[in-house]
Amino acid sequence: MAEPLLELRNLRKAYGALVVTDNVSLSVTPGELHAVIGPNGAGKTTLIHQISGMLPSDTGSILFGGEDITSLPMPQRVRRGLARSFQITSILPGFSALENVALAVQARSGSSFRLFGKAAQEKNLNDPAMECLSQVGLAARAHVPAGLLSHGEKRQLELAIGLATEPKLLLLDEPLAGTGHEESLRVVETLRRLKGRLTIVLIEHDMEAVFALADRVSVLVYGRVLATDTPGRIRENPDVRAAYLGEEELV
Ligand SMILES: Nc1ncnc2c1ncn2[C@@H]1O[C@H](COP(=O)(O)OP(=O)(O)OP(=O)(O)O)[C@@H](O)[C@H]1O
């Protein structure tokens, strides 16, 4: 098996007596789409926060490309190619889709926000921004103000903004949340296109999407990894099925 791009070793996060992630160890290989599923409150979002650097872990370590990044702040993790897709709340509604992505390209390039208002007029920002929009299937909507995009298109824009940091690994926290059927098919198609070209850790409640996209699935229950396996074997795993009773259907 290839060297893991991301390796979590015994990560833990507790709020007082509530242990939210408990001794989580998992490895993500280059090019893999690794889904993390689990019932509500299992600790999935907390785990993403720990990986991205938004939340410090109490104990355990995170290796990225073999380097221990456990104590690095988020911007330094992003610089190394570990990015999470930005949430819709960070999209600037009055700016076009292209400008939103161009600003992310500008942030990556490390230049200041001095040219904020003119950011999208810069060819060296525009071209890579347009490329990111094309990758998520939003090129035709480049000049539409982000606030006028549909919910699904905003989720695609989020992905494009994430891509603008040129990540090696993209952390996605529920990219299908709130999307309708058609929109969700579009986002799934986008993820399928990105898959393999970059490594993805995906948290998602939509089991149909997870089982269609993932190379491997880790199941988190009460903060612990119950199983990591191929989608087919996860679906048949009796412990996993038991954990999901009364929760989302495993398709
Ligand atoms: N800042 C916090 N302070 C206290 N408890 C928290 C905090 N953040 C999360 N929790 C608790 O940790 C648990 C796990 O939350 P988390 O959001 O990581 O779960 P999740 O698996 O992503 O859930 P969902 O699928 O519903 O989004 C929940 O019980 C939540 O209430």
UniProtKB/TrEMBL annotation:
Record Pfam families: ABC_tran, BCA_ABC_TP_C
Domain (ABC transporter) ranges: 6-247
GO molecular function, one term: ATP binding
The organism's place on the tree of life at top rank: Bacteria
Keywords annotated in UniProt: ATP-binding, Nucleotide-binding, Transport
GO (cellular component) term, any one: plasma membrane
InterPro entries: AAA+_ATPase, ABC_AA/LPS_Transport, ABC_transporter-like_ATP-bd, BCA_ABC_TP_C, P-loop_NTPase
Identification of the protein by name: Branched-chain amino acid transport system ATP-binding protein
Organism: Microvirga flocculans
